[in-house]
Amino acid sequence: MMNMRRIASLIFALFFFVAGCVSWSAVIPAQSGNTTVVAPSTQPSPQPSPGLDRAWWATDDNADRISTPIHAGVKRTSRYVTLRDSVRLAVDIYLPEALKAGTRLPTILEQTRYRRSFEFKPEVRKALDRPPQRVVDFVTRGYAYVIVDVRGSGASFGSRRGELVPLEARDGKDVVDWIVSQPWSDGKVGATGVSYVGTTAELLLVNRHPAVKAIVPQFSLFDGYPDIVFPGGVPHTWFIENWAQAIIAMDRNEIPEQQRKQIAGVRPVDEDSDGVLLRQAIREHATNIDIHAELSPITYRDDRAPAGWTLEEISPKSYVRELVASRAAIYSYSGWYDGGYPLSAIKRFLTVRNPGSRLVLGPWNHGGRFYFSPAKGRLNSSFPHTLELLRFFDYHLKGIKTSIVGEAPVHYYTMGEERWHSASTWPLPRMRRQTWFFAGDNELSKKRPAAGKAFDTYLVNYSAATGNLARWNTLFGGTPVDYPDRSAEDRKLLTYTSAPLEHDTEITGHPIITLFVSSTATDGQFFAYLEEVDEAGRVRYVTEGQLRALHRKLSTGRPPYKTVVPYRTFLRRDAKPLVPGRITQLTFDLLPTSYFFRKGGRVRIAIAGADRDHFEPLAGPPPTVQFYRNGVYASRIDLPLIPRREASP
Question: What residues in the chain have per-residue pLDDT under 50?
């Protein structure tokens, strides 16, 4: 049973799922039969506004290179589309109002697990029933927009034996076949979405459908096992439990109590005026699997869920050959605090190098609505995400030479400096590694330690935590990210802190930590945090990494995708329990970052054996661990240092 803290978190995240759908647009619609006609706002929306993460291209001289609104409004209709096995999917179709006969448009497709649209109560329908603003922005500029409830969810029929399974990817082919057969389609399709919806966009390419020309998987996984379910092999218990409860509620068409005065449930399609079909579809969802129950028995990458699937078959990384063969341009899109997904975006970008593919990494939470920088705190993002997608899709679906043409394929944001930069590749060509060693008196030193038997002893503190606005929380509903001063929390951890920096220092890339440890236990969870200690003594979280010791063996084989960090298989055959008292090497990466450490500040590495807010501790009493810091067993962190250069505009 979930404790009260988790129940509160579930309610909060469910609110964000619903509120996110409700607040997509500020446009007030007028009702017209079974359609909704929406007048565009008098100003292009969203506008790039001055702010710390304002787009690098948002200047007056190139803003007009994105397509401009040419239609007066948006009309929504909905219907069922029948798949090859006779299962019916609920589909919302958004087209320009009063579209002239014979006009053909490129289509943007979203396939969602989270209900394509809502049925509002009559008393609030006029004020709240509106298409998402991103849809308005695309459709008024000459696109069709299609949003689908995937099989066994929302108002769609069918049931689910798993999430993102191959059957669901094949459904995408049928949907695209239907789109290109419509009189309003020009035969070109782009796909996008955030999180789960971003992964459905990527898995759509497995079909190698010739109509699908470009996709933008936003804030989404690439390798399901380490990216989200088992980061570093550590069970991501908080997310699994809460996400499972949320989708069970959705499949029952339940609405959080605080939203029931506004929302009746998922929207029926137009042909289902009395809701009979919707009720029938929801009854079919009753046999959907419980994803928490399915994932609970899994420890290794090759373990099968009780329903028979593995995390391999739901991961885009398992279909690299098909992704490449699709030749679709892929825009890998994430933020530095988007759970483990910035690394997902990098792996995708490095592995699937289709022509026109790009990578962006901003100072964002999951979904990009909020900005977070340790030096500046939490703010609303001022980055125009929809216009950035338009720059990409305008070029690949309409042939418009937007300002994206000729740009470097990589853009990343350096926090602390609060500036965008560009690069031709990743990791940055100018990056060099700088090694800092664990030293006596909890110091972090550039000097390699002398021979001897020096070590520090740490009794794992199971109360160590990272808070309820951490990078992992934002994966559930796009909640903001915020890390308060970690001074008090660090007193529970083993820390190593440098002397004040003599120069401004930029760290951009993948920190790699090597620990030499011995433990009283046969397993353990190891968390490493990169932090900045400012001149006032405030401790700022920068990034983190984790590893379950059982999975410590590094692979000597060829990884299934291109990676620039230590690779391990997480397979059962490669499991290596610790031998109590024996010195063992643990090498793992911290999640990528780009952070500017100011002169006078200090670099800190904090080591923990638990994060009670997100990762369930292993069974048994807290182990005692010795961390070695001598000439033979030199525990250390390798930081990706970037020589200082003039800031990019």
Answer: 1-50, 646-649
